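Q: what does this look like with alpha-D-glucopyranuronic acid bound?
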Amino acid sequence: MVFMKIIIVLFFMAAFFFHQIAYAQEFVPNYNETLVPEYNLPKLLQFSNGEPILSIDDWNKHRSALKLNFAQQMYGVVPKHSIEMQVIEIVEHQNALNGLALQKQICLQLKQNDHSIMLNVLMLLPKTNKKVPVFLGYNFYGNHTTSNDSSIFITNNWVMNNPDLGINSNKAGSVSRGKLAYRWPFDEVIQRGYGMVTLYYGDVDPDFDDGFKNGIHALFGNERDSASWGSIAAWAMGLSAVMDYLADDANVDANKVAVFGHSRLGKAALWAGALDQRFAMVISNSSGCGGAAISRRQYGETLARINTRFPHWFASNFKKYNNNENALPFDQHQLLALIAPRPLYVASAVDDRWADPKGEFLSAVAASEVYRLHGLNGLPVNEMPKVHCPSMGAIAYHIREGKHDILWYDWQQYLNFADMHFR
Ligand code: GCU
């Protein structure tokens, strides 16, 4: 009997495994604009009962329902009870970056009953007595990869293997120190009067499908249903936890915190910005499917593909929409609209077709309607701008040459956008 049960379980495990492999091999992304299906975007300025939204008050009423819908059907609902946060240690270095910057490394402990996690936050700030605006965003492989500065701590948490960075066995080490420094132009950001705050996303929730047993999920117990939160919602919560800390940091202007992220971390930044209105600006760098891009276009990465490859990113309800995008009760332009009226930047790269640059742009165009309701101009253009021709209103968009990455060109635009809205 027991033997039979083991055989049956093994059979199902093998079937699941081969299904995943087969799916991954079969999937051929559509990169042909003429094959994008016809679709109707859900209306932005309409209550779910069909009544029109005519005022900011109406929008705010609708906004809560829309946010809940995104949570239940896509990113997942976060458990209600709160967790404790404690600042364990702050290590300061007054002369970082050759004397240009104040560096702080803050160890935050998040705790619930007997479970706790530690977030290691790296801050680089201009040396001034004034409180400064900051950019807050995750890094992919640990704080130490952002700079050659040997005082930056190395995470003990699981990291994704990456032979190019010398990361094997899911363990970070000094070989990867500074390897991604090109993504973090600390000197230039500081010279422009901004601070930069970053942490490793795996400190909040390691990015693999572990059945939600580790990371921040573990602080909330094991009870789950089809609407429960996935990793993107967990990373969004981590950003809000850091915001809780920044609100009290003597060097930071907490009214001018721009949350940003590249790719999967751009998806997390958008969801964090939608949920937490303390983020005064939101920047999505190539966030693609499940981020800024319109899901109904099915261009590049699709819902079926993202849910199969990354089953832990979203609530399991989201899988209902695999190959069934038209059944979605919303689309990603509505996620962007949840950020209104705060300044929002959406950026793409030409060779990053997987993230559907046009879908990201169209989403920003559509979201502009809600900015206009707030008396703002949204994105100033309706036609996709040429490469390296950023367009900036309350919503900004650019597309740059090159691949899926966050580069100095992107940062230059984000700094200009911050100057436009924060100065
Ligand atoms: C994969 C994934 C994307 C994601 C990207 C990244 O390509 O399919 O959805 O944005 O990884 O995070 O780099």
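The chain has a mean pLDDT of 95. The beta strands are 84-95, 101-112, 115-126, 132-139, 195-200, 252-262, 281-285, 344-349, 391-392, 395-400.
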